[in-house]
Write a structure and sequence with these properties.
Blueprint (H helix, E strand, L loop, with lengths): L7 H13 L9 H14 L5 H15 L12 H15 L8 H10 L14 H4 L2 H5 L14
Helix pairs in contact: 1-2, 2-4, 2-5, 3-4
Length: about 150
């Protein structure tokens, strides 16, 4: 199994890097998205992540030279689905289970594939402007299906 982060301090660095907008853009990978979500779910559960993470990501994108448009940057449906998936995955572990191990397990699961959402959404629906701007429900399989 691939080791994405050496220890929980490395996961915390990613989470804090998102919040503080200091994580180098090259490190904002698929694994980093989930690492940040898992870290925030465990260490900053209030207010609910689904309400605060969108603005964190938008601000991070702008701070690292990105943009948030109808075709690039922040994507509401992907973000909310990923938070739900991360929350469900984290719930399988004891509260003291090393977070870097949770990230590795998650990345070894179907969620670790960048196209995992296409099991639930058709490509056209998921990458529509409507899905980028707001939550749209899956059209292929419910998100609550086992991942």
């Amino acid at each position: 199994m691939t080791k994405h982060y050496a220890d929980d301090d490395a996961v915390a660095r990613v989470g804090r890097g998102l919040v503080e907008r200091t994580l180098p853009k090259a490190e904002w990978t698929h694994a980093a998205h989930f690492a940040a979500a898992l870290w925030l779910l465990r260490h900053a559960p209030e207010p609910p992540l689904g309400t605060v993470m969108p603005d964190m990501i938008r601000a991070y994108n702008l701070a690292t030279g990105g943009e948030n448009t109808d075709s690039a940057g922040y994507h509401e449906t992907i973000t909310q689905a990923s938070i739900a998936a991360a929350r469900g995955f984290l719930g399988r572990y004891a509260a003291d289970h090393p977070l870097h191990a949770v990230v590795d397990d998650l990345m070894a699961s179907p969620l670790g594939k960048p196209d995992w959402l296409l099991v639930h959404w058709s490509r056209a629906r998921l990458f529509s402007v409507e899905a980028r701007r707001g939550w749209i429900a899956p059209d292929l399989a419910p998100l609550a299906d086992p991942l």
